[in-house]
Amino acid sequence: MFATTNHHQLRNYMLFKDLSEDALIELASHCQHQTLNVGETLFHQNDQSDALYLLEEGQIHIVRQYPDGEDVILATEMPYYAIGDLSMLVGGGRTAAVVAVSDCTLIKIDRDAFFEICQQVPDVASQVILYLAKRLRDLNLKVREYAISNVAARVASVVLLLSGGDTGEIKSKVRVSRIARAIATDADTVERILRQWQDAGYILFDRGQMQILDLDMIRHIAG
Q1: Is the model's pLDDT at 208 over the cut of 90?
Q2: Rounded distance, CA 200 to CA 196, Å?
Q3: Tell me: the pLDDT tens digits for 86-133?
Q4: Cα separation, 143 vs 158, whole angstroms
Q5: Which of 10, 60, 81, 120 is the most exposed place for a label (fewest CB within 10 A)?
Q6: Is 91 helix (H, G, I), strand (E, B) or coil?
Q7: DSSP label at residue 88
């Protein structure tokens, strides 16, 4: 289902909020309104990045599928979120799938139309460059924060969360790769830390089964 997009709607999105009135009007003329029912997939991981979507109403999950078949929800996004902007600009395949958590209304801008607008309206291209620069700056800050933070403390926090009590018993299977993704580090680092804890007698860990032997020490490491 498609409908006309009011150019004033576009100013709700960070990508376009500083554009001139004329630029917004030109951009709106290339927009399409689209609906997505709860449970429907907007696009799949590795699909061609042929459009930018702007979430107007509803909620969506961004879902990443890993080689072991596990699906991980990376984020839940609300209205005024730009969906697939970087993938659309760079081209190539989508880095994750997008699934509707509720009935959604979206604004769609085709990739070819977007680049045509950037050539015709310099304000749009300038705004995109500024937007990407800010995102890159924020990403650099996050990467530095992760790099200097205590990885062992983050691993211990996840282990305590998995234990879910004061007994130190973990009934579910522990996946090193999942812990690594949860704390934004690599699996080798997590494996090395768990091996050190086992050698020190803090835990028992074998074939995905884990038991905390020294709960106080793991709590101390977690801070």
Answers
A1: no
A2: 6
A3: 899 888 899 999 999 999 999 999 999 999 999 999 889 999 899 888
A4: 20
A5: 120
A6: coil
A7: H
